[in-house]
Amino acid sequence: MKFNYPLAKTSWDEKEINAMHKVIDSGMFTMGENVAEFERKFANYIGSNYCVMVNSGSSANLLMIAALFYREKNPLCQGDEVIVPAISWGTTYFPLHQYGLKLRFVDVDLETLNYDLDKLEESITPKTRLIMVVNLLGNSNDFSKINKITRDHNIDIVEDNCESMGASFKDKKAGTFGVMGSFSCFFSHHISTMEGGNIVTDDEELYHILLSLRAHGWTRNLPKVNKVCSEKSKDPFKETFRFILPGYNVRPLELEGAIGIQQLKKLPGFIAQRQKNGANFKKVMENHPDLIIQKEIGKSSWFGFSLIIKHTSKMQRKSFIEKLELLGFESRPIVSGNFSESEVMKYFDYTIPFELHNAKYIENNGLFIGNHHSSMNEAIEKINEL
Question: Who has the most CB within 10 Å: 82, 144, 373, 380?
């Protein structure tokens, strides 16, 4: 079915196509200088010391969790407890399970769609080692409150910022508040490199671990003096195939790096237009009698527009979706709904310390429609008319 207002549309033009042709003409397709240049420029845009590009945002989450197991001081261990929000994408949770961590699900706020911060604070136990903070649909969490909650605990914060590239809280970019932050460059996200993702960090040891884990766990991509194997030997024959960590192959392509360089030039304009669309959407919809829209924390980068039917409304989601489709809108659940109700949970080691009232309500009464890098005035007017 073709939609006039799809969830996502291309942001490419001849600049991305020309960049791809240059890579093809070079004959060098695997990770190389284009990827390295994109990493440097992305780190500069975000305000982090280091960036590691990988093949997807999902792989970015995987490497973030893996890296915490291999640092020298205070590494994570199997059986450690990690707090997660009840609403996010599957690959927020899967690496945590795959590395043997115990998940502790916490409810979200019905308006911000991020952590219910009171429940987050109440859910911390002496066994809590990590909080996975997910900035949902372009909206940063309130990190002032989260830092206050965690300051007396030995707890690390990592950010799944895959949906919130360009968002900020108190003039600091989302994705930079934890020890690491992940980003996605998938087709439907703020910039697109086809597939692709990034990890940012200010921690040099974690950066070196990520470099090794990204490519087979070898030393080849590490600096001569590094935080993983101390110092590489002078024998390239042996050093090129020296394996030191149980890594993966989640390297990006040179094509993706070259596209990313061009997309990054456009990103400030993309974010500005998405925020302009968001301001228009709020103006039209924030006092709607039947629908709740997302409450902004800091400056959202407005990944999409969430619509949650109010308790007091007689509106039914099924009929609402049908009417949206007739007007040409593609819609979907809010991320993946209440993930704790997913069938895959039978494989997880997890607890739910408090009832997930809001996540359950969103599961049955929420949806979102797309936002784009171009004007959404016509679409927002149609929503208003509906």
Answer: 82
Beta-strand relationship, 304-309 and 366-370: antiparallel
The CA–CA distances, whole Å, from 158 to 42, 66, 149, 181, 203 equal 18, 12, 15, 6, 12
pLDDT at 338 over 80: yes
Whether 289 and 123 have beta carbons less than 8 Å apart is answered as: no
For all residues of the chain together, what is the average pLDDT?
Answer: 97
Using DSSP bridges, classify how beta strands 50-54 and 197-201 pair: parallel, antiparallel or unpaired: antiparallel
Longest CA span, the chain: 73
- Per the DSSP assignment, residues forming a β-bridge with 329 are 5
Task: Encode burial over 185-224: b for 16+ CB neighbours within 10 A, e otherwise.
Answer: bbbebbbbbbbbbbbbbebebbbbbbbbbbbbbbbebbee
Nearest-5° Cα angle at 140, 386 to 172: 135
Kindly write down the DSSP assignment for every residue of 271-302, as one continuous string: HHHHHHHHHHHHHHHTT-SSEE-PPP-SB---
Ordered by where they begin, the domains of the chain are 14-262 (3.40.640.10), 267-385 (3.90.1150.10)
Question: Cα 311 vs. chain centroid, distance in angstroms?
Answer: 29
Distance of CA 129 to the CA centre of its chain: 21
Contact (CB, 8 A) for 58 and 91: yes
- Answer yes or no: are the C-beta atoms of 167 and 300 closer than 8 Å: yes
DSSP secondary structure, 198-247, as one string: EEEES-HHHHHHHHHHHBTTBSTTS-SEETTTEE--S-HHHHTT-B-S--
- The tokens describing 162, both together, are 């895959």
The single-letter code of the amino acid at 73 is K
**CA proximity to 4, closest of 327, 259, 225:** 327
189 is catalytic: yes
* 109-163: pLDDT as tens digits: 999 999 999 999 999 999 999 999 999 999 999 999 999 999 999 999 999 999 9
Q: Angle between the 57-70 and 90-98 helix axes, to the nearest 10 degrees?
A: 30
Q: Report yes or no: 188 and 247 within 8 Å, Cβ to Cβ.
A: no
**Edge-to-edge strand ranges of the sheet holding 331-332:** 291-292, 304-309, 366-370, 331-332
